[in-house]
Amino acid sequence: MTTPDLHLRRSPLRSALLKAGAKWEALGDIAVSAGLGNEEAARHLAITDLSPLPRLGFKGRETIPAMQKRGVTLEPTPNRAFRQPDGGLCLVLAASEVILLSPLGGDGGRLKELHDSWSLEAGERTYPLLRNDSHAWFAITGAKASDLFAKICGVDLRLSRFPDLSIAQTSVAKLSAIVTRADIGGTPAFHILADSASSLYFFDCLIDAAQEFGSSVACLDVLRSLESG
Hints:
CATH superfamily of the largest domain: Probable tRNA modification gtpase trme, domain 1
Mean pLDDT: 92
CATH architecture of the largest domain: 2-Layer Sandwich
Radius of gyration: 17 Å
Order of helices and strands: HEEHEEHEEEHEHEHEEEHEH
Strand order of the largest sheet: 10-11-12-9-3-13
Oligomer: single chain
């Protein structure tokens, strides 16, 4: 076990997670919450903070070919997500913008490589965006996830209408958000990216909306268990 203050990267929700009973584990230079939730609860409805995990954006006219050149798995299809060989995700928001999410194992080496390989002198019409700083990252898992969204989002995110690897750039709890469905080991899962400065407010909104469905707060190791099957 560890404490968040000993690590370079930690969640803006650490005080709220501590109140929920979280312990902390070291994942490289990251402090991640532990000891919350279980697989059964996550298959029903659970909220997990993934904000400490690495993420990176690229934006510009030549972003798609630049990513393809670097071996990122993607197609020029806006509002679609693409699973990566290492277990991460590439979110194609537009022909000129992508966001890359690390695998649940927390290995940010590939994203660091992509960031460090970019050079202004190369003349590519794309540039990196440090989404660790701008966006908090949540996962909502379970069969009742769509019911939660029905209370706080105007987009129809029912599983039958919003298939796996779909993206909605919309408003959730009156905040601009990027919602990506990317199921984990057969369990419905939605990744949400929202303004990091509003992460505590957003977390409270998610908890409030989920209460009537018997939700729980989960931690990263629970999602990893779902992933391994």
